[in-house]
What does this fold into?
Amino acid sequence: MAKLTSLFVILLSFFCISEAVFEDQVGKFDWRQQYVGKTLFAHFESNTQSSKKMFVATDKNIFASFNSRTGDLLWRHVDKTGPEGSIDILLLHGQDALMVVGDGRLLRSWDTNIGGLNWEAVLDTGSFQAACFVAIQDTVKLVAVLKKAAISLHYLSNGHQKWVENLPDSDAVQYQAVYSGGEEEVYVLGVVPNSHLTIIAYSLEDGEIIKSVEASWLSSIESSCVVVGQGVLMCVDPATLALYTLPIQAEETPEFSQILLQSLDLEVFPGFQPVLVSSQPHPARSPLSEFFLQLGPDHHVLLQLNADGYTIAPLRDFQPAFLVSFATTGKKTVAAVMTPKNETACAINLFSVDSGRRLLDTTVLFPLEPNGGKPHTLYVHAFLKKDDSVGYRVLVQTQDHALTFIQQPGRVVWTREEALADVVTMEMVDLPLTGTQAELEGEFGKKADGLFPMVLKRLSSQVTLLQAWLAHLWKLFYEARKPRSQVKNEVTIETLSRDEFNLQKMMVMVTASGKVRREGVTASGKVRREGLFGIDSKSGSILWKHYLENVQPNAAFKLIVQRTTAHFPHPPQCTLLIKDKDTGLATLHVFNPIFGRKSHIALPALPRPILQSLLLPVIDQDYAKVLLLVDDQYKVTAFPSTKNVLQQLQEMASSIFFYLIRSDQGNLSGFRLRKDLSTERIWEVVLPTEVQKIVAVKGKRPNEHVHSQGRVMGDRSVLYKYLNPNLLAVVTESTDTHPERAFVGVFLVDGVTGRIIHEAVQRKARGPVHFVHSENWVVYEYWNTKSRRNEFSVLELFEGTELYNSTVFSSLDRPHLPQVLQQTYIFPSPITTMEATLTEKGITSRHLLVGLPSGAILSLPKMFLDPRRPEVVTEHSREENLIPYAPEMPIRTEWFINYNQTVARVKGIYTAPSGLESTCLVVAYGLDIYQTRVYPSKQFDVLKDDYDYVLISSVLFALFFATMISKRLAQVKLLNRAWR
Amino acid sequence: MASVPRSFLLLSIIPTILILCADFACCNTGRKTGDGLDTDFSGFSVPLEHSFEVDDVSRFRMRGALQLRGGRETSVSLSQSQLSEEDRKTLKEVAAVDGLYKIRVPRVSLTDRQTERQMDGYLTAFVRACSLVESHLSDVITLHTDVSGYLIGVSIVTIPGACRGTEVEDEVDLEAFNTTLTIIAPTNAPQPETALFIERMDIEHEKRGKPQEQKSFFAKYWMYIVPLVLFLMMSGAQDQSGGGAANGGGR
It folds into this structure.
């Protein structure tokens, strides 16, 4: 019997192996896009025309290199999330990229060619302030790192520390800047706000000189001072509207000299903090004596510090100008200035720094998208052309974190939508039918209005069909003459149409990047950049994007599909509910998910905080599902709120129930709608917050179908599933975190009646709990504090061998509690997210898609998570195909649906059914986005790619002819026999 | 007063208690004021209130008293009065307009000291009034507690649960509640069954492993090896003699 069992297990495993991807299927149905996040620092490799590399460090703690010709990633290093891996600064010199990581924790040097780590040095504790290269005799050999209370010098070649000095009086003085102009000294600048400036000069060998300068107006060096020319500190004071200069290297105690902006005929935009921009092309030399002064949001002035170090000459006034940047190639330094051209484009021009003259033929146009963000930062890659003139390419970062690389003369080489590194939520929407198909469909959808108009309509739709067919033929003919390579099958919004099996869909993704870093003074504060993206699920190309401005940084989102594409001629409609987490106030953004256009629909006024939103199956006369919004006074707002809808709501009011959860109070309560759209509280369950807190609540997905009502058991009886569509799974964690007393609670609550269907406690367990609630089961994963391992537990609910009411399920009429079966398994890996596959009709067996921290996505058959797995194999259990219980859940590498295409930092997995019952569409998102298809029961409804049509048809034909011939022969024979 | 709890004690051994009308219940409403020390041994009672109104505005009235007993074996019993003539009328009216019959109990803890027992707020549940009428007031009330003995939820269902619109003619059927009362504590979710699995594996191993270990390779296949060796020896001897002859011939 044991042999049989093992044989059985082996057979099963063979069955599962077949899920793996074949080599020729790689990339056929799946794609991956890798992102890096919002760029903080960007550098180009070298100043030659042929260089292809550029390096970025981002707010997602990623250091990456792009191919500047294609925008593809050359390599990428993903560090720890959170402040531990945050990149403080990125400096580039030659082949070395230096990086300070984790608020001054580590100093790293990377080889920029291959992206390998040269060395890593652990720095002394203390928060990071600034860093710069230090040159000795024209060669850069050292790097200086300024911390809050110390400065250290490290060799560039091996990271060894040359020396470290404690900064004097570091409690009072805020040291903020470090400067080296190629001489034998390093200068550390510190400030006691509104009192004085401290300059400490360290000789490279040793020793220090301290100078103190009176500067009562100065509060921060970082935001208002730069070093220009031969070591002159240039500061701007918005209060006195003056520039201050101070020679740092002067022997005797220097003093600030004041130059009023008025004397230069300059005026600051009211309420604007002026900003200085300077450039130090080479660390071994002093910075340029030219610098930019930003006087307003779109006003910059190029100024020059004269050789005497006290007087300033204005070179050129740029107004309007959004962004300015310096770029150096060889001996030449140029300034790039972005000016608005018209509504749809910005112009970028190069100017000679010495004279302020515009360089000829350097205009590049940057296209401004109507729904995109404004330009935010300019990174210029200047190089000398063969004729010694300056050429350049420019990388523009916009407010929506998109990077656009533009080449002369104004060609957009590539665009990277880095906002997609932070997808919050997504939905998949069916594509519309083609125009002609839709035309025919629309004909049937409309109401009949007489015989004659109907005939006309039919004729007109057939004319359009004919037109489309002719156009198609013409296109075929036209393209047949072209070489094949030129004929591209590009996906555009116009050509989008549903395919035969509805495998291609529109992915609507909501992105957010809420991390607020210390930015320049120009940053507009704590406004988060939200983006909406429409992505073609087949190719991964971004078809539209919409940038939402002024969304609060801590907003929560809910994306709701109110109308699908099935109701031609009504366009599909999606609603994004944006809710401020602090105030609870919500706004709605209604748009067409196929084209991304905002719909001009009258939105309901939402003056009160919104507690809950629910999508009803009620549809209005335009086939849009009704969205109910419940505010904090338990009043209900319907959207859309036409008369028709309100009437329907009144009729149905007594059967509309909803629940509210206040996790801070541990309160779950249920409400019923009244006819006047007010509500009444009908049930209340309270989980005392002193004992446990609610971490998550999940209902079932509304588009989920369950094909079989029960399971056939070994003895041919049926065990019926408890399929309650209103069931909520509530997961709690204990407030007591002691490993012996910690627990995870799982409550199954009926969302209509508030009845606690099941209540289980997993002892000695703690979160993070990941769980999936579907059909008649709940699978959850937790950390076992006693055994120190991850465990999976599965709960299944059965009604028993008899159904209470087989025709319809009503929460109000199900008096008997279901039988609950539960089993627990050890899982040998932590997990980051979990989701279940979903298919059109629910016939296909279910798999769990588990995102692992390694970036792999595991497709775990639900068969392994079955509480009816027997401990001892019996005849019945074998009949039922139950796998014998084994405490450890296997992880087989062939179950990884994304083979080697790991998805970094998986945050969520989205599943959607396709038109094929066997196929489920999967999108995993995190830092990367990965889309694929899974076939949990293999492709039982699809012929294989290598299906031998020729053989089958030839056999068919052969048989056909054989029957014909034999029939004829038989006839002849019969005839002959008859004659005899 | 002391005799009343004793009768409850006896009953409380069975977790599911059926209590028919009890007229003495009226004396047992409200909270019992006992001293703190013996709270774990003697129960205490909390009111069970109900509300059924034609206009669906909750007005809770006393229905009965729940006698709760904490400690190692929690138990609960209910004493409740009959429905008055007026109540019966209202209930039928509410059932006619498909109103709700709601019950509520205060949030209490079964294990904590008397002073901390009562927390603010109630736990509420409902059932359709028509189903209560049609089931002739036979309802099942379940109280749920959490791990530390707090009441967290209450639920009420009627058996049968459906509203078929059958008219309840007999007023007597609506006089007294036929209540089944249960208290449910959370179940402990199972841990992975490693010990049993290892035991089973061991047994299987023994079954399979023992005979194999005892027989060595030679002992198992001697019948093949011996003839082979014999054959080799025979042929080897022949070869040697043949070889010797050939060598001799060569010389």
